[in-house]
């Protein structure tokens, strides 16, 4: 990285640090450090369709926030936000069924459900939305969107015609899906799914890739995959993004939704390429940088933008699980923010102070050309 001097123009574009800092909170920390060191700052918190997408798109989409009480992923009442604009609405899956809504010891995708997400979509329809965006990432669920469909009027039946709960544990007995009761407004509304991953529903490179991080035990993976197969097959299952949010993407595709990369929508909404071209440095970050990051996540998209604009990109991350050589090929300079070995709980608790310290270190290196 060339010597940039003291007066650096910095575009601050972090993602959320899951379960510890929102993208907006991380941006505030980074901006405070950059300004304290005498640099000019622009802020554009980003999200890839996962947690934080509602906050990232609130201003450019002109959204007003409404809070709705819905069932959380394990059924407990949860306060979830919904963005309402002029003729449009944005539902963030993580608000109602997010992994951060479930304590680590209680995570159980066999009984987690997206009913709350469906209720948010129904509320958006009640408020007159003609176009509903659904940000798919960050879910605690692998129900194939059965909870969403149930909240919108679908019913799941066993071989005797008995109703089943919309959870993977119950849906192992699924024989038929009755969609005759679906909300008729769905036929008139435009649906767009903002995917954080472009994976199909089934197979080793589908929704199965993310089941363990939601709390699934190895012995439960075949049962979860079987439920997804019972719910969907054919073209719906093959759509890139159908496997996002534990198969919720497939449910939306089955309702006629178009699936697009969430990060592209966010970057366009914030004019990130134009702003990166004006900057001397782009400063980003997220909780964990690994191989998944480079397969369509926000930092990978930022790296492509910065490669085009020839702007250095520095990522400050809770942990970095990629080699320096691979990061260099991707166009990313990455620094871990955790100062040394510690528990996950401590890393989450100290995320803000760790990020602040790492930002001072990174900018000191930039200022001296190192």
Search tags:
single chain; 370 residues; alpha/beta; Rossmann fold; Glycerate kinase, domain 2; six-stranded mixed beta sheet; five-stranded parallel beta sheet; 15 helices; 14 strands
If you had to describe this structure to a student in words, what would you say it looks like?
The protein is built from 15 helices and 14 strands. It is of the alpha/beta class. The longest helix has 17 residues. The termini are close together.
Topology:
Elements: E1 9-12, H1 23-36, E2 40-43, H2 53-58, E3 64-71, E4 77-84, E5 88-92, H3 93-97, H4 115-126, E6 131-135, H5 146-151, E7 155-157, E8 163-164, H6 168-171, E9 176-178, E10 190-195, H7 221-231, H8 234-238, H9 244-254, E11 258-261, H10 262-269, H11 272-278, E12 281-289, H12 298-309, E13 313-320, H13 324-330, E14 333-336, H14 344-349, H15 351-367
Parallel strand pairs: 1-2, 1-12, 5-6, 6-10, 10-11, 12-13, 13-14
Antiparallel strand pairs: 3-4, 4-5, 7-8, 7-9
Helix pairs in contact: 1-15, 11-12
């Amino acid at each position: 990285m060339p010597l940039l001097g003291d007066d650096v123009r910095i575009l601050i574009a972090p993602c959320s640090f899951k379960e510890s800092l929102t993208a907006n909170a991380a941006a505030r920390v980074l901006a405070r450090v950059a300004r304290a060191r005498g640099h000019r700052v622009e802020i554009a918190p980003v999200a890839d369709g996962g947690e934080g997408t509602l906050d990232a798109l609130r201003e450019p989409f002109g959204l007003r926030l409404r809070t709705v009480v819905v069932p959380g992923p394990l059924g407990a009442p949860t306060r979830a936000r919904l963005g309402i604009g002029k003729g449009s609405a944005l539902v963030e899956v993580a608000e109602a069924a997010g992994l951060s809504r479930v304590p680590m010891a209680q995570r159980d995708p066999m009984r987690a459900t997206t009913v709350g997400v469906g209720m948010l979509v129904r509320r958006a329809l009640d408020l007159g939305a003609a176009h509903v965006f659904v940000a798919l990432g960050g879910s605690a669920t692998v129900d194939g969107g059965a909870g969403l469909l149930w909240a919108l009027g679908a019913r799941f039946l066993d071989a005797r015609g008995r109703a089943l709960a919309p959870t993977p544990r119950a849906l192992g007995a699924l024989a038929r899906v009755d969609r005759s009761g679906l909300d008729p407004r769905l036929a008139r509304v435009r649906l767009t799914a903002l995917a954080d991953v472009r994976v199909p529903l089934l197979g080793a490179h589908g929704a199965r890739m993310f089941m363990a991080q939601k709390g699934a035990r190895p012995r439960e993976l075949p049962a979860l995959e079987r439920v997804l197969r019972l719910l969907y097959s054919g073209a719906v299952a093959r759509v890139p993004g159908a496997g996002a949010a534990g198969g919720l993407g497939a449910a939306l595709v089955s309702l006629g939704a178009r699936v697009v990369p969430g990060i592209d929508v966010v970057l366009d909404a914030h004019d990130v390429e134009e702003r990166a071209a004006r900057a001397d440095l782009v400063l980003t970050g997220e909780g964990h940088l690994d191989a998944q990051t480079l397969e369509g996540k926000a930092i990978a998209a930022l790296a492509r933008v910065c490669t085009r604009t020839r702007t250095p990109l520095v990522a400050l991350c809770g942990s970095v699980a990629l080699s320096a050589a691979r990061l260099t090929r991707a166009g990313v300079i990455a620094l871990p923010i955790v100062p040394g070995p510690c528990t996950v709980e401590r890393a989450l608790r100290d995320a803000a102070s760790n990020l602040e310290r790492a930002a001072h270190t990174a900018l000191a290196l930039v200022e001296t050309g190192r």
